[in-house]
Amino acid sequence: MTNSERKRLNGEAEEEEEDEDDNLNGGLEAWERSYADDRSWEALQEDESGFLRPIDNSAFYHAQYRRRLRDRSLVATTARIQKGLIRYLYIVIDLSRAAAEMDFRPSRMAVVAKQVEAFVREFFDQNPLSQIGLVTVKDGVANCLTDLGGSPESHIKALMGKLGCSGDSSLQNALDLVQGLLSQIPSYGHREVLILYSALSTCDPGDIMETIQKCKESKIRCSVIGLSAEMFICKHLCQDTGGSYSVALDESHFKELIMEHAPPPPAIAEFAIANLIKMGFPQRAGEGSISICSCHKEVKVGVGYTCPRCKARVCELPTDCRICGLQLVSSPHLARSYHHLFPIAPFDEVTPLCLNDPRNRSRSTCFGCQQSLLSSVMQGKS
Question: This protein's superkingdom (predicted)?
């Protein structure tokens, strides 16, 4: 048998083995096979309440422990630390070539987009008077994707249409852009930047230390969540501006880290001063009314609100009037922000044995509905 015949036979054998492997894997991609091999649905068990819980609860208990510590620290410091209720936050998303890495499944970019969508909705639920803007960084250039606004749907729609990774990342260009945008914010507003950084380097045109100093002088709180490894410049930025720096280990850890930025943080010392803020409560436009929206410069029918000062039409609340600059809110937004001023203290679990103990002086009725706790315990036993 000649060498060419042997090579041909070996090539046919290799092709048959590859076909067999594809058939065994069902034509799945590599990252899909890893999910199938994990068989995570088998690591579930039913608890006493009928809910499905993971068998390994170490990660769940760790997250619960961190959340409990955070809640206790917030309650302990509520009396002496003022919260920033009107926040202006820019989310800087790194879309360089590092965001296309697949150590997060299916990619860093997909995980970041998914968690940013959840964070935007949670942010406006926790901070109804605040506003968010999106900034993307790729090819060494920072671009303002959306201006500051109070509509979660518009931010999410703009982000999902610009998910492309290329080039290097530039931390200095992003900070310069955000610093210029936030410098126009009124003094009562709390200026914040949340950077979701995937790269391990930054390609800057100048001295980034000067840019960090400008952010510090502008009272901008900068926080960074890394997706690769810890970087000195990111840590230095957060320390100088009073922000926080964390590195995500996996998707669940990244979700936990980004959600920690949804509640309002303690105010910077210079901002912890009582200020009177002018606000307008606009009326909703009638169904058949036709007017030009000052936000998008378009003619709209029966949609929007009318500014009480200059009678201009805006699409959504809360926002600032584009004509007279008055901050426009609704009364439900103001009421929902009130719960951050007086948070409820954490509850202590009371067992039935403690309720039946005559030496125990704890309440025997529910604080919320005033129903007897002893009767519910007796019904549960029967």
Answer: Eukaryota
